[in-house]
Amino acid sequence: MATDVHRPMTPTDAPASHPVPSPASAVRVHGLTRSFDGRPVIDDLHLDVRPGEFVALLGRSGCGKSTLLRILAGLDRDIEGTVLVPRRKAVAFQAPRLLPWKRVWRNVLLGLPGKPGRAVAEQALAEVGLRHRTGAWPKTLSGGEAQRASLARALVREPDLLLLDEPFGALDALTRIKAQRLVDELWQRRGCAVLLVTHDVEEAVLLADRVLVMDGGVIAYERRIDLERPRGIADPRFAGLREELLRRLGVEAPAETATA
Ligand SMILES: Nc1ncnc2c1ncn2[C@@H]1O[C@H](COP(=O)(O)OP(=O)(O)OP(=O)(O)O)[C@@H](O)[C@H]1O
């Protein structure tokens, strides 16, 4: 797995020793700090993600989740510390970000090196159940379809690391459940590492091998999720994990549950 190393823009700020790329990690973050206007949003953060691992990242609004994801994606390099990520990585955001003047298949291939043909896009679109929309204009897609097209654009890059920033946040409840199942299937089929930023504790427990809670600029808490798949919220262990993570996010259980 080829690796990208994101080092600080000012090498003098770099820590004395850098971690070396390791096939045992899909992501290695060492002593990462990112400040805005002199205020560190990420403050000496360490993180390892194994190849093929599904990690969900929770945290209060404004705690720095998207900032971390953008750094892993290589979209923000104004950092201190070291970030090692696979060269093959792809991102999908909450907004599908399709160019309205390009047909769906051209959006899927956007920015890919070489000149891959329509069939390559069509295959990725088929994987997300959207082959029939290959030649459509983005404005004719529903919200869920546009989000699936955005996923196809990520998949066509054959990523070793898939970065998802609230990809289901704008979808209605039913479409969201379908999209979650699709991501679960794709992850199992592709075997890539996934880092999913989400506000939804249930989504994190449904999908992830490990849930991280970000707070104070670091990973403040982590919980391995050992429930067998496919998972359902009816599992009694599910409610316990959900409550535990909500507590870590500063949300207390209602009084009657707390005293039960
Ligand atoms: N380009 C920027 N310039 C200045 N401040 C920024 C910039 N990007 C992010 N921030 C600040 O950094 C903090 C973390 O932002 P970030 O978007 O990473 O949070 P988040 O955890 O993803 O929040 P949310 O859950 O609400 O999406 C916020 O206080 C935000 O205002």
UniProtKB/TrEMBL annotation:
All copies of domain ABC transporter, residue ranges: 27-241
Pfam family, one: ABC_tran
Composition-biased stretches (Low complexity): 14-24
Lineage: Bacteria, Bacillati, Actinomycetota, Actinomycetes, Kitasatosporales
Swiss-Prot/TrEMBL keywords: ATP-binding, Cell membrane, Membrane, Nucleotide-binding, Translocase, Transport
Molecular function terms from GO: ATP binding
Name of the protein described by the UniProt record: ABC transporter ATP-binding protein
PANTHER family: ALIPHATIC SULFONATES IMPORT ATP-BINDING PROTEIN SSUB, TAURINE IMPORT ATP-BINDING PROTEIN-RELATED
Coiled-coil features, chain-numbered ranges: none
Region feature Disordered, mapped onto this chain: 1-24
InterPro entries per record: AAA+_ATPase, ABC_transporter-like_ATP-bd, ABC_transporter-like_CS, ABC_transporter_ATP-bind, P-loop_NTPase
